[in-house]
Amino acid sequence: MTGEVVTGTNAKEPPCVAVYGTDGGGPFVLVSDHAGRAVPSYLGDLGVSAEDRARHIGWDIGIDGVGRALAQKLQAVLIEQVYSRLVIDCNRAPGHPTSIVKISDGTPVPANHALTAEQIAYREDTILHPYHARITQELDARLKAGRPTVVVALHSFTPEMGGLKRPWQVGLLHNHDKRLAVLLMELLRKEGLSVGDNEPYALTDTSDYTVPTHGEKRQLPHVEIEIRQDLIDHPAGQEEWAARLARLLPQAWALFCQTYGVTPGAQADAEGAMA
Ligand SMILES: [Zn+2]
Questions:
Q1: What residues flank ion ligand 1 with Cβ within 5 A?
Q2: I need a surface site. Which of 56, 59, 91, 270 has the fewest CB within 10 A?
Q3: Which of 154, 36, 19, 132 is nearest to 78 (CA)?
Q4: Assigned CATH topology for domain 17-260
Q5: Ligand 1 centroid to 8 CA: how many Å?
Q6: By CB neighbour count within 10 A (0-12 exposed, 13-18 middle, 19+ buried), where does 193 fall?
Q7: How far apart, in whole angstroms, are the C-alpha atoms of residue 167 and residue 224?
Q8: What are the sequence ranges of the domains in the chain?
Q9: Alpha carbon 101 to chain centroid distance?
Q10: Does residue 180 surpass a pLDDT of 60?
């Protein structure tokens, strides 16, 4: 961690954003909405057991280790949300029905019931908005300097949902601009992996917030990567996936530049970005 502090909550609480890695001049900016599972002290334990808070409902298991190792290998900046998505989901627009969940995968979240507008606004102002402002700040600085910039959103998914086993080892999510996702998908498949194409989730305008806000609206090349949690719930798996992505992301970007006529040192042509 760079030691940078973004104080969203009051001084007694951990800052809501953790920034890892150093910018070595490459195109990638890594963001991780569900990497953390802290709960502000004023919310206690949310009324949820420690065991449940440690489940996937609290955070994206394993993605913290992958993201931090990947940031180091790519010499890229990683911006992580520190607080649990049970407090507020930073991949949802403010006011979205699942922004602050009352029940998650069968587990009630008592601290999220009967919230006033002020209480909701407080969580947005102290956690959601400062996190996205930090991402915006990073992207603004790069674009001002005329640097190529690729937004990479990192997530993990459960091996099973609703009693069904999910066959994919990794999923790439896309919506309005699938160019980089398709190129990375082909590279992952060449490694013999089962790769979900908009699986286990599809990226949409409403169910997501980070890629639509920082990738699509800004017409920046982007990809959302979901890794199955049993593959990265241990350090060796995290290292393996970080090494794989550190190898393949630059290859995908080089192919992107060739295919779409982008000079690697210049920003992608905005015209084609929403194709
Ligand atoms: Zn996630």
A1: 34, 60, 155
A2: 270
A3: 19
A4: Aminopeptidase (3.40.630)
A5: 21
A6: middle
A7: 18
A8: 17-260
A9: 19
A10: yes
